[in-house]
UniProtKB/TrEMBL annotation:
The keyword Chaperone does not apply. Coiled coil: none annotated. This is TonB-dependent receptor. It is a multi-pass membrane protein. Residues 49-151 form the TonB-dependent receptor plug domain. It comes from Sphingobacterium chuzhouense.
């Protein structure tokens, strides 16, 4: 395998003079962050799962402009984009499919019942994100169905000041698009306006973002509009109300996205609305409850031939309403977590039909630190689906503290993925559903060792996952449409490592994040089929992020290496330099600086070397 070349070594060496001598070590606050990936209140330093957290401070310094680009830098996360700048992307964890990863906002599920292709239709600006948590492994005990390989939870900020901000950015490869496009240099541009209002009793934040690109090749232009609003009301010290609303309009050319080469003139328009209302109540010193209702509405208009809407057009309208109640009860011998939730899914579609199903779940969890040097989390999630009946997902997490810095962790549990409506009922010329599909069921076991000290966090572990009734879209030859089947058992052995080192020298703060993952996957299935998705799963994944900043400037370099089981590999390097004035900040990005040619999914080449420039103004009291 070719991991690096001389240019990449020289680039890394160019940053070394910034290091200097570490005269002072500053503790990273992330160690005491309460992990929202758990229903119980568990600090990151005491968690027994494989959880990675990317804080808002890190996000600000990285060479990224949207959520998709951030996710592509997380350990064990496989982001497969069909187009840059948020056109369309799928996300998966540790070799699973994009349907097996659950996406949440503040713990609320935002998955679409039509297809997980829409999971990242999230209009959340980076400035509104407090942190991103990635929970790897079987997460059904915590979140219920469809968290088969893990979950990504996006935590939004709580407003702490009144401010107004504007962000304008643009970029280009300074190259002409392909010959067929014939319309000049490839570019993108965006603007974002935001405002927040802080009051002792209530806080509000609102953002509007608009982006446009003419596409890296013929018929891949995109434009999107995003609106995000969040409000909080502190009724008193023990009771709080929070609400959130968002809207996203995304229109993009879909040349080669789903049915290459026949979809050369395809276009897709997706509109997504999401709203949630929740409250938090500390009823006593020991007892806490939090009810929540959410609603997600999505319209998907796929135009197979954009010039003739009478041919191959698909229109889907989905709605998912959820209600849940989470509670926590603390005792002298441990903490109990109890909860209920119901989800009501509906779809009306031109080529899927009209369907509905309901899902009801209940969970119970217990955590104790009363055993010497050990922490124990044990629990189960009981689920009833009107289409697939009853199932139970048990799990246990164990942690043994060797000393205050070293800890051994072990966890094991089951999980499930219910087929989407696309899996079951789609009726297109190139893709046909299968109403006889059974749900996927998995069991995963992991062991790891963790190290935490002031400024240093490390995790190294091994896991084994077996998925029964694994669903894959396959076909016997290129002339036959793809169709999903329960193909057999999917087994994955994995090794994952992650190291985060933070230190301070003089007035400069440095952060180094290194990660490596190895996956050995096997699938027992009938030979002679062409797979639509699983043959491109990652086998090797490595990342190296380096960040340095002080009060007025910041610099970062993001390196990542991907090799898929098809032996396709690529190494990408992105760079950011930023400078802050009293109310104004300027940043410049160079992405894919070695101009690597690569494909993340389907037959869609991603852009080569790319330059961006942004200016951000913020007025705050």
């Amino acid at each position: 395998m070719k991991f690096i070349n001389n240019h990449q070594i020289l680039l890394a060496a160019a940053f070394l003079p910034l290091w200097g001598h570490a005269q002072e070590t500053k503790q990273e606050n992330i160690q005491e962050v309460i992990v929202h990936a758990n229903r119980l209140q568990i600090p990151f330093s005491k968690d027994n799962r494989n959880v990675e957290i990317l804080s808002s401070e890190q996000i600000k310094q990285l060479p990224v402009k949207n959520l998709n680009e951030v996710l592509g830098l997380l350990n064990g996360v496989d982001l497969r984009q069909r187009g840059p700048f948020g056109a369309q992307a799928d996300v998966s964890i540790d070799g699973g499919s994009f349907e097996q990863t659950l996406v949440l906002v503040n713990g609320a599920k935002v998955s679409d019942p039509q297809t997980a292709h829409h999971s990242l239709n999230l209009p959340i600006p980076l400035d509104a994100i407090e942190r991103i948590e990635v929970l790897r492994g079987a997460a059904a005990r915590i979140y219920g169905v469809n968290a088969l390989t893990g979950a990504i939870n996006i935590i939004t900020k709580t407003v702490d000041k009144t401010s107004i901000q504007a962000n304008v950015y643009t970029g280009s490869s300074f190259k002409n698009r392909d010959e067929e496009a014939k319309d000049g240099i490839y570019y993108h541009a965006g603007t974002q306006i935001g405002a927040s209002w802080f009051n002792d009793k209530h806080q509000h934040q609102v953002y509007y973002n608009k982006e446009k690109s003419n596409g890296q090749r013929y018929n891949t232009a995109s434009q999107n509009d995003k609106i995000f609003y969040q409000g909080n009301l502190a009724i008193n010290n023990d009771n709080e109300l929070e609400w959130l609303g968002s809207y996203m309009y995304n229109r993009f050319g879909a040349n080669g996205f789903y049915a290459a080469p026949d979809d050369k003139e395809s276009e897709e328009i997706v509109e997504t609305m999401f709203a949630s209302l929740s409250s938090k109540h500390q009823l006593s010193e020991q007892f806490y409850v939090s009810p929540r209702i959410t609603n997600r509405y999505n319209e998907d208009d796929y135009r197979f031939i954009r010039q003739d809407l009478a041919i191959g057009r698909s229109q889907h309208y989905t709605n998912a309403f959820s209600a849940e109640l989470n509670s926590r009860y603390q005792t002298t011998f441990g903490d109990f977590g109890l909860g209920l939730e119901s989800r009501f899914d509906r779809i009306s579609s031109s080529n899927i039909g009209s369907h509905n199903r309901n899902n009801h779940g209940a969970y119970a969890e217990f955590r104790t630190e009363q055993l010497k040097n050990m922490t124990v989390n044990v629990g189960a999630y009981v689920n009833y689906n009107t289409q697939y009946g009853w199932q139970v997902y048990p799990g246990i997490d164990l942690g043994y503290n060797i000393n205050p810095q070293w800890k051994i962790v072990f966890n094991t549990g089951s999980s499930q993925r219910i087929p989407s409506y696309t899996d079951l009922y789609l009726n297109q010329s190139k893709n046909i559903g299968n109403p006889n599909l059974r749900s996927e069921n998995a069991w995963q076991t992991e062991g790891a060792i963790k190290f935490q000290s002031s400024g240093f966090i490390a995790h190294a572990g091994y896991f084994f996952r077996e998925i029964n009734e694994f669903i894959d879209w396959v076909r016997p030859d290129a002339q036959t449409p793809y169709q999903p089947f329960n193909m057999g058992n999917n087994k994955v052995h994995g090794i994952n490592t992650n190291f985060l080192y933070t230190f301070q020298a003089n007035d400069i703060r440095y952060r180094v994040n290194l990660g490596y993952n190895y996956l050995d996957a096997s699938l027992k299935q009938t030979s002679g089929f062409i797979s639509k998705y699983h043959l491109e799963n990652l086998k090797h994944q490595a990342k190296l992020l380096f960040m340095a900043n002080n009060a007025i400037w910041n610099a970062s370099i993001a390196n990542r290496f991907h090799q898929r089981i098809s032996d396709k590999s690529y190494f990408l390097t992105d760079l950011r330099l930023g400078y802050r004035f009293p109310s104004l900040s300027v940043y410049a990005d160079a992405q894919n600086i070695f101009d690597v040619t690569y494909i993340e999914t389907s037959a869609i080449p991603m852009p080569g070397r790319w330059y961006s420039l942004g200016i951000k103004y913020e007025w705050g009291s």
